[in-house]
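Colleagues,

For the teaching module next term, I've prepared a clean inverse folding example: a structure given as tokens, and then the sequence designed for it. I'd like students to try predicting residues themselves before seeing the answer, so please don't circulate the second half yet.
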């Protein structure tokens, strides 16, 4: 066996899904938090914390442009150039759209051996605020298309590298970006230490309400009164917007007595019958499958709504070209429900962390979402289309608020990144062993230093990959459409 084969076998063993087959009574497996923390600390002997520091591309690293093109397989060809155009906007935009590229690289980094339900794409812009079923507004991870059980440090490394890339995008001093990165790792480590000795139910019930997040930004971010008022105004606007009064007039027009979604190509348009074979039956089969995936009490509510229309709606950076749609359902003339219907493909982590145990990738996403988020949309569900593709559904907008980074200074970047670090620790602690993860990281800055070193080096890699993409477009190897 050569060195490469040995490494691949080791990686497969370390990242293979663990099934919970108990051969002894649960009481014989009980260990205190102190004991589990000690077990986590012992893992440093196999994988020292310092080993996580730095990044050097392996000699056999694939061409990043080839990987981007490979990730386009199965996407709608007409939308792929739009995806490339969005990725060309900046190294930060490119980074956000290349989770698959980083997943391949993370597989070559040291692995602690501890797994959680991972996000798979935990960059800064995949955190934000949204409404809970109780109509409270919380801060949490809000994009989990790539979620899969995987090593916890993969998520953290993607997050901290995004801090450096974002800082460079904002033209901050490198030292300030590094300070923000260090604060993010420290916030994650200290929050995980708190969870290590908390009661299991207290960890599960913990959440970050938006009001607390805003106070943190004001206190630690040095937020000016103008910026603070602007943020408060965005929150009030989001809370005040109703689907009937805001989304419905913007997205829908009347065709006789029937409301239909407005076409606004190339970003919103109705699919062809060839592309969506369920069109002839009004997508009845898919809607029925989605309904069956809902909890019984939510089905009672969903049954009040009747399907009227569906259209493709281009969203994000990484999702462009996949089949992302919006469905219009009505309970009455002034009582609409918009469902976002997103194609769920195999997680970018799957080649390196093991296949999903769920038969439908929509179910994989929903299960991961419910595991990682402190509260989730009541209409989360999944289905399979007649075209064989997997989908998951949720409300299109539910007081969703995303960060607008363009006017950030170093203080605001650091404060916001810290909140993301705390939110990621909370999400990991729900499915992983907080005591073991905390024991591995320890109480010193050793782990923080290593992860910061990785973040800087990997941000350099992301910039090199971005330049390779720009060159490929200029040479005509890749087609891109820049939106105006």
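(Answer key — instructors only)
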């Amino acid at each position: 066996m050569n060195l490469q084969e040995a490494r691949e076998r080791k990686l497969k063993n370390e990242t293979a899904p663990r099934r919970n087959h108990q051969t002894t009574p649960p009481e014989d497996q009980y260990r205190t938090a102190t004991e589990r923390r000690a077990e986590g600390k012992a893992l440093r002997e196999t994988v020292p914390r310092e080993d996580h520091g730095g990044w050097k591309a392996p000699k056999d690293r694939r061409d990043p442009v080839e990987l981007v093109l490979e990730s386009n397989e199965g996407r709608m060809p007409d939308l792929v150039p739009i995806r490339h155009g969005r990725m060309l906007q900046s190294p930060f935009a490119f980074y956000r759209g290349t989770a698959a590229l980083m997943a391949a690289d993370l597989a070559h980094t040291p692995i602690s051996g501890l797994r959680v339900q991972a996000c798979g794409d935990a960059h800064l812009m995949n955190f934000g605020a949204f409404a809970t079923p109780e109509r409270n507004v919380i801060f949490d991870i809000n994009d989990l298309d790539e979620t899969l059980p995987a090593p916890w440090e993969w998520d953290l490394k993607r997050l901290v590298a995004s801090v450096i890339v974002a800082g460079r995008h904002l033209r901050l001093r490198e030292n300030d970006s590094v300070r923000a990165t260090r604060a993010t790792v420290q916030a994650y480590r200290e929050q995980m230490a708190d969870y290590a000795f908390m009661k299991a139910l207290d960890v599960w019930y913990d959440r970050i309400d938006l009001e607390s997040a805003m106070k943190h930004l004001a206190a630690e971010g040095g937020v000016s009164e103008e910026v603070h008022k602007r943020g408060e105004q965005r929150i009030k606007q989001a809370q005040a917007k109703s689907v009937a009064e805001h989304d419905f007039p913007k997205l829908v027009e009347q065709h006789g007595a029937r409301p239909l979604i407005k076409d606004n190509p190339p970003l919103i348009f109705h699919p062809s019958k060839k592309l969506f074979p369920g069109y002839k039956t009004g997508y009845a089969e898919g809607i029925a499958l989605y309904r069956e995936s809902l909890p019984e009490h939510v089905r009672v509510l969903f049954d009040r709504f009747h399907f009227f229309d569906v259209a493709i709606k281009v969203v994000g950076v990484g999702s462009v070209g996949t089949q992302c749609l919006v469905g219009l359902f009505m309970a009455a003339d002034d009582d609409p429900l918009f469902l976002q219907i997103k194609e769920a493909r195999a997680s970018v982590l799957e080649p390196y962390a093991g296949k999903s145990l769920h038969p439908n990738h929509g179910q994989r996403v929903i299960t991961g979402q419910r595991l990682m988020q402190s509260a989730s949309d009541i209409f989360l569900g999944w289905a399979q289309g007649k075209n064989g593709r997997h989908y998951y559904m949720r409300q299109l907008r539910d007081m969703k608020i995303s960060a607008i980074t363009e006017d950030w200074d170093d203080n605001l970047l650091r404060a916001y990144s810290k909140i993301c670090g705390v939110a990621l620790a909370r999400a990991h602690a729900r499915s992983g062993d907080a005591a073991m993860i905390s024991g591995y990281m320890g109480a010193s800055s050793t782990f923080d230093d290593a992860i910061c070193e990785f973040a800087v080096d990997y941000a350099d890699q992301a910039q090199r990959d971005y330049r390779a993409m720009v060159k490929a477009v200029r040479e005509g190897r890749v087609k891109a459409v820049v939106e105006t």
